[in-house]
Amino acid sequence: MRLNKNPDVLLMGHPLLFQEQPQVVVGEIASDDFQHNLEVLKQKQVSTQGVGLAAPQIGWSARVLSVGISEINRSRYPQAPDIPFEFWINPQITHFSKTTCWTWEACLSVPGMRAWIERPNSITVAGYNEFGERQERSLTGFTARVMQHELDHLNGKLFPMRVEDKSLIIPNQSIEHQEQWAENWPTANAHKTPRGQMSTDR
User: Fold this and answer.
1) Do you find a cis peptide bond into 84, omega within 30 degrees of 0?
2) Is the dihedral of CA 86, 90, 94, 97 positive or negative?
3) Which strand ranges, in their side-by-side order, compose the sheet holding 169-171?
4) Contact 158, 110 (CB under 8 A)
5) Beta partners for 72?
6) For site-directed labelling of 9, which of 139, 149, 153, 154 has its Cα 20 to 30 A away?
7) Residue 106, Cβ neighbours under 10 Å: how many?
8) Which tens digit of pLDDT belongs to each residue from 144-158?
9) 3-state DSSP assignment of residue 16
10) Cα 103 from Cα 6, distance rounded (Å)
11) What does the pLDDT average to over 160-172?
């Protein structure tokens, strides 16, 4: 398929967001349509201030994602570190650390909501880049978090499905006034951890 140049971001409830996405045939990566779709994916990520975006979020049924943070798209996570912009095609996590960490997650497909979520602190991910070349990275901290969040999209999962305690879900606007929260709400570490930073404890 060939995406239009400015697709809408699909919202939670759309059936495509709950489906496991199909593997890309590596030989198709170099095609004009595929390269066009990659560029649309990245531009949509940047224009919506996303730190990552997965293909199904813009109606493209494929195991493809884009990640990256710089000054042009940092507003939703002002304390996040820089992450080089990269495409990942057919990504898979080959190793998870036993240690975990917590941070505030949000999603363009789940507007108005944010949650305090635990995931492995470090991962190793392997897949292909936009040239059809094999790539592998060991990621830690917020970079590992972004990758895990986007990979969930390729497996039909959204971040609210990762939350076991509803007290850890807040209105997205609340994060703008974190300094006004009740003491230790919703947890002591969630209270003091800004967007884009990690906590070793709940």
Assistant:
1) no
2) positive
3) 100-105, 113-120, 169-171
4) yes
5) none
6) 139
7) 21
8) 999 999 999 999 999
9) helix
10) 30
11) 96
AA letter at 150: E
Nearest alpha carbon to residue 51 among 118, 5, 108: 108
CA end-to-end span of the chain: 43
Q: How far apart (Å, rounded) are the C-alpha atoms in residues 131 and 26?
A: 9
Identify the three-state secondary structure at position 70.
Answer: coil
Q: Which residues pair with 100 in a beta bridge?
A: 120
Task: Round to whole Å and give the CA distance between 39 and 150.
Answer: 17
Domains, the chain, in order of start with CATH, read 15-192 (3.90.45.10)
**Average model confidence (pLDDT) for the chain?**
97
Structural tokens at position 128: 């292909």
Per-residue pLDDT, averaged over 175-200, amounts to 97
pLDDT grade, residue 102 (50/70/90)? very high
Q: How far apart are CA 132 and CA 88, in angstroms?
A: 10
Q: How many residues does the chain have?
A: 202
Catalytic residue, from 28, 86, 136, 150: name it: 150
Instruction: Return the pLDDT at 164.
Output: 87
Mark whether 150 is an active-site residue: yes
Angle at 170 between CA 165 and CA 175, to 5 degrees: 135
